[in-house]
Amino acid sequence: QVQLVESGGGLVQAGGSLRLSCAASGTIVRINAMGWYRQAPGKQRELVATITSGGFRNVADSVKGRFTISRDNAKNTMYLQMNTLKPEDTAVYYCKTDSLLADLRIVSSWGQGTQVTVSS
Fold first, then answer.
1. Digit-coded pLDDT (tens) for 31-68
2. CA angle 95, 1, 100 (to 5 degrees)
């Protein structure tokens, strides 16, 4: 199985920055896609950004130019650098991975979520 541990959330003023991390562990042979999603109160979970093992990125229009997704394949870790934060970025942020395990299964896994709160 895969365990995902997120960190880096918190409270920040509008215009500020935060950096989220997501560390994966388990019987992982390779992590294919990794991504960040968020869910605000009363809203559906939405995609923020994804990155493939080769570094191809897909970023939501709402955060394009402000958020940067990256990953360290050697550490099985993904990052989300969030700059120029806005109150509407307030949400619980979740990481997701699609991993090839040692038993040759491909599994999708979600982190527990980390709260990001942006005050105006």
1. 999 999 999 999 999 999 999 999 999 999 999 999 99
2. 80
As to burial, measured by CB atoms within 10 angstroms (0-12 exposed, 13-18 middle, 19+ buried), residue 18 is buried
pLDDT in tens, 72-101: 999 999 999 999 999 999 999 999 999 999
Q: How far is CA 85 from CA 10, 20, 38, 55, 98, in A?
A: 12, 13, 14, 24, 28
Query: Is 5 within 8 Å of 74 (Cβ atoms)?
Result: no
Among 1, 8, 3, smallest CA distance to 117 is for 8
Rounded CA gap, 69 and 13, in Å?
21
